[in-house]
Automatic annotation (TrEMBL):
Protein known as: Ribosomal RNA small subunit methyltransferase E
GO terms under cellular component: cytoplasm
GO terms of biological process kind: rRNA base methylation
Function: Specifically methylates the N3 position of the uracil ring of uridine 1498 (m3U1498) in 16S rRNA. Acts on the fully assembled 30S ribosomal subunit.
Domain Ribosomal RNA small subunit methyltransferase E methyltransferase, first and last residues per copy: 82-238
Domain of life: Bacteria
InterPro entries for this protein: Alpha/beta_knot_MTases (IPR029028), PUA-like_sf (IPR015947), RsmE (IPR006700), RsmE_MTase_dom (IPR046886), RsmE_PUA-like (IPR046887), tRNA_m1G_MTases_N (IPR029026)
Catalytic activity: uridine(1498) in 16S rRNA + S-adenosyl-L-methionine = N(3)-methyluridine(1498) in 16S rRNA + S-adenosyl-L-homocysteine + H(+)
Keyword ATP-binding recorded: no
Compartment(s): Cytoplasm
Length: 246
């Protein structure tokens, strides 16, 4: 039986004190773990270790940390997803799947065609939930690398950030009106790849102008129109396959 996995952002000492109430409830009340039971701790940066429960309280669990090890990403390339805010449940699902597919970083932008369910909401309050969903995906999938995540007021701002990260050579837009398919000769010599996708209602004229001025390459990810939460997953999977990473 696989050990329970717990996100531990400070995995650098022989002991760790967990004060996350949700984690404490899950371990003590749901899994009913006791003193001397073992879990796996990971820091989201590649390190993991065995943690032996030393003490369980209402507001804390103390672990003794054994044998910290470091794992490398199993993927040859670095992948980035530039995606819009979409319906909360769909965005949670999308981020969990991107974690499972080994994405390195996620840039979330507020699209011009923002879904009406989000139009009057404070999007900053959603961000914490998104980060929780990513941690949960790491715990469940045995991924030891938690992607970085950043938030932007528009597509232009997110693309500016992507340019600072690695230029535009490896930035591809997955677009319903694109005519060109993803080909292996476009990516084999790239170390970093970014995929840009739009919301359910598509890119606005202003967003298309921004991408055209930056001369970003547009690609299609299939024969049919994909949902906003599906397109990044399909696109990233296709890039993995072309790079021989599966």
């Amino acid at each position: 039986m696989r050990k329970p996995r717990i996100f531990c952002p400070e995995l650098s000492a022989s002991s760790y004190k967990c004060t996350n109430i949700k984690q404490i409830h899950h371990l003590a009340k749901v899994l009913r773990l006791k003193v001397n039971d073992t879990v796996e701790l990971f820091d989201g940066l590649g390190s993991f270790a065995s943690g032996i429960i030393q003490d369980i309280g209402k507001t804390h669990i103390n672990f003794h940390v054994n044998d910290i090890e470091l794992t490398q990403s199993p993927y040859q390339k670095s992948y980035q997803a530039i995606v819009p805010y979409i319906k909360k449940e769909n965005l949670n699902y999308l981020l969990q799947k991107l974690v499972e597919l080994g994405v390195h970083s996620i840039l979330i932008y507020k699209p011009d065609h923002l879904d009406q369910s989000l139009a009057k909401k404070d999007l900053s309050k959603l961000n914490f939930r998104l980060e929780e969903a990513m941690i949960s995906a790491c715990e469940q999938s045995s991924c030891n690398h938690l992607p970085s995540i950043s938030y932007f007021n528009g597509l232009g701002e997110s693309l500016d950030a992507a340019k600072r990260y690695d230029g535009f050579e490896g930035v591809f837009v997955l677009d319903t009106i694109a005519n060109q398919s993803i080909k292996d000769d476009e990516i084999l010599n790239l170390d970093a790849i970014s995929i840009v996708t739009g919301p359910e209602s598509g890119f606005s004229a202003t967003e298309r102008k921004i991408m055209n001025e930056l001369e970003l390459r547009s690609l299609k990810a299939g024969h049919y129109i994909l949902r906003a939460e599906t397109a990044p997953i399909v696109g990233l999977t296709m890039f993995h396959n072309l790079a021989g990473e599966y």
